[in-house]
Please model this.
Amino acid sequence: MDLARIQEALRRQKLDAWLFFDHHERDPLAYRVLGFRPPRHVTRRWYYLIPAQGEPVRLVHRIEAGILDSVPGDKRQYSSWQEQHSELASMLKGRSRVAMQYSPLCAVPYVSMVDAGTIELVRQHGVEVVSSAELIQEFESSLTEAQFDSHVEAGKRVDKIRAGAFELIAAKQSSGVTEMMVHDWILDRFREAGMVTDSGPIVGVNGHAGNPHYEPSGETDTPIRPGDFVLLDMWARLDEADAVYYDITWVGHCGEPSARVREVFETVRDARDRAVNAVKDAAAARREIRGFEVDDAARSYIREKGFADKFVHRTGHSIGTEVHGTGANMDNLETHDERRILPGSLFSVEPGIYLDDFGVRSEVNVFVTESSADTTGAVQRELVRIE
Model:
């Protein structure tokens, strides 16, 4: 835990403290930000208050008195609920604005870890509870140089496998190739390349590509034939501690695509580029940009083209050691994500249009620095011709 950095962030955001709380290890964010793992299963509530200035305060149950011994601060203990409430009141005395893992209206579910009752308990002491969403992404979603390097290396390997998957489909069409064959081939190549993934990949043919979270199975496996549309969504990271995911979606057509397919692809591609350019322009101007604004840039273009009701998910998500990270999402549909896109953050931009007979998604990864933003791997400009 970098106490000085946390306290500096609290002062910058004009917060009096950050109050961490856990019970039964329900908040993994707390342990990651504080930089420790509990020495045993957590069966009693603990609180850890980091003030903007001064020494932190620990509050633990007497039968688990050592649960927070690996972090600094004054230690207080309780047994009864009355004692717990009294000690918590003492910790909060004089504090007006305190951050917790809470999100108003659950707008950012990734940080909504603290139960409503505990929020009520804190509020009854006259404290304004502020969402820790901005703090969390500062400490969770700003990549180190080593993490960024791991992402770039994963990208090189995944892009090579993606190209190979389209070549496999082309080579096997005459003898027979199915979604599951390509799915399993990709997973085998991931293992050979020293990469891991939590699920997937998505290999979707025709109407299956119109389902954003389709994944082939024995029951749905479909042949890939001449004239078919194919979507590949692939995500993986190096099989190393703290390695960061690379996550892409490309689409192709077995033979000459129709004018309708080309129109939908070009609409999605151009919407993607508008979103990426919005981030690039803001970074170059050192102007703040928030997740919902990136979503608006892509969604407004798709709306102009008449496909608004066919774009049914957010424009992008944070990426980290988990493929869906805890930083700002590019979202003004599923949620109104007002979090700033911070330097050091990595996220996907992946607008899509989903029709009954096919669906197009084009996904790239974007990394932001203090004064620039750019995609981190190959970018699809034209439909892949699979032949």
